[in-house]
């Protein structure tokens, strides 16, 4: 269930290599890195990356190009950030069109996850954006970038997202999940994937 993640702007190639080594040792599903760190050849892991990250304020054309370039460089999964401001303003059709543009750049079997920045949205908007993501062909909805000042994942948001997509899409909880207890709370709320930067500590707690 774990995307072992390193998206800090100061991340180096050596740190990404260490991330991949740690991911293999931990037995996680995937690593998630910035697109400039691709390709990651020979990892034996699912490779995820991000686009429109972290603000979401890129044009749809730029997001689609970034996603297509990442797929060409070996990304199996792309986590895109919506235009959060458009969502807050109720411009859900624009949000759906933005997602659809990136979906076209990430053809199946590529996986598209849609970061909605749930902490910045009210419940009605979370529901509307999740519905838009499903209508646009996304595979997952995801809570957070982990970079927004409003905060990261919450069990409430995960539960609402899971109820909205009804098992038709995956739900990724990400942002601020630093303990085993918090991770398990997210899974209980309906998360089917976890984005973790401190995967070792979280997973170690499962054996305590």
TrEMBL record:
Q: Per its UniProt entry, which superkingdom is the organism in? A: Bacteria
Per the UniProt entry, the Enzyme Commission number(s) are 4.1.2.4
Subcellular localization, per the record?
Answer: Cytoplasm
Which molecular function GO terms apply here? deoxyribose-phosphate aldolase activity
So what family is this one in? Answer: Belongs to the DeoC/FbaB aldolase family. DeoC type 1 subfamily.
Q: What does this protein do?
A: Catalyzes a reversible aldol reaction between acetaldehyde and D-glyceraldehyde 3-phosphate to generate 2-deoxy-D-ribose 5-phosphate.
Q: Please report the name of this protein according to its UniProt entry.
A: Deoxyribose-phosphate aldolase
Name the encoding gene, please. Answer: deoC
